[in-house]
């Protein structure tokens, strides 16, 4: 069993669209701090970046333009979120999406983050190859993880990703006898090809 005292920040954005490169902006952020298999703290807020939410996005997320109009300014929320994360390693599901928005929103404020993003979707493709797909909701159902609330709201997705991250740590620990399956190990694991992954994790086992 993994005895992991490392803290990670599990992050999820809701946004107006798919990419900040097209002018899309964040509408909601949620962050959980996870240590030793438990969520120990949470941060969540809607945010107003002055960008209209298309109706098809509202249909998916339930976040309306009226909700955003009443939300705190994006600058306030992102400064708080950046402070909340600090230098903690970050985890996200489909992390390339969240990383783009994290960096873009911080760049608007001339802030930067050195946090490295581990991706539970990339890890799941390697560790659970028989899953019918690697969407968060599919993996939660497949692995029997806790689920509450409406998917595609930031805190619900962040909490489900937190459970998935902890399960990945447990399963890798059990399969490869690695006592401390930390962020650094899994960050490298997500970049390994599936055929080379066992050798990499066995090497990790022999060094712990």
What this model shows, in words?
The protein is an alpha/beta fold and about 210 residues long. It has a single domain (about 5-205), classed as Nucleotidyltransferase, domain 5 (2-Layer Sandwich), CATH 3.30.420. It has helices at about 55-60, 65-70, 75-85, 95-110, 120-125, 135-145, 155-175, 185-190, 195-205, and strands at about 5-15, 25-35, 40-45, 90, 115-120. Helix 6 packs across helix 7 (about 155-175). The mean pLDDT is about 95.
Rg calculated over all Cα atoms: 17 Å
Please give the number of β-strands. Answer: 5
N-to-C CA distance:
13 Å
Return residue spans where pLDDT drops below 50 for at least 5 consecutive residues.
none
| Individual helix count | 9
CATH architecture: 2-Layer Sandwich
Task: Please indicate the percent range of residues in DSSP E strands (runs of 2 or more).
Answer: 15-25%
Structural class: alpha/beta
Q: Give the CATH class.
A: Alpha Beta
From the spread of the alpha carbons, the general shape counts as globular
With strands numbered from the N-terminus, the spatial order across the biggest sheet is 3-2-1-4-5
Helical proportion, percent range? 40-55%
């Amino acid at each position: 069993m993994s005895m992991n005292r490392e803290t990670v920040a599990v992050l999820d954005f809701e946004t107006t669209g798919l990419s900040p490169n097209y002018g899309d902006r964040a509408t909601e952020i949620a962050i959980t701090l996870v240590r030793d298999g438990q969520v120990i703290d949470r941060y969540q807020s809607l945010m107003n970046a002055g960008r209209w939410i298309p109706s098809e996005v509202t249909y998916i997320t339930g976040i309306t333009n009226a909700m955003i109009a009443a939300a705190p300014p994006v600058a306030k929320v992102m400064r708080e979120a950046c402070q909340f994360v600090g230098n903690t390693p970050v985890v996200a599901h489909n992390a390339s999406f969240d990383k783009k928005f994290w960096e873009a929103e911080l760049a608007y404020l001339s802030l930067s983050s050195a946090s490295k993003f581990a991706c539970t979707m990339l890890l799941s493709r390697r560790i659970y190859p028989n899953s019918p797909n690697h969407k968060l909701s599919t993996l939660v159902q497949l692995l029997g993880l806790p689920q509450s609330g409406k998917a595609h709201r930031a805190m619900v997705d962040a909490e489900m990703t937190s459970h998935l991250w902890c399960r990945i740590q447990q399963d890798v620990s059990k399969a490869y006898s690695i006592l401390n399956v930390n962020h650094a190990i899994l960050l490298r694991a997500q970049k390994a090809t599936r055929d080379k992954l066992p050798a990499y994790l066995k090497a990790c086992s022999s060094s712990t």
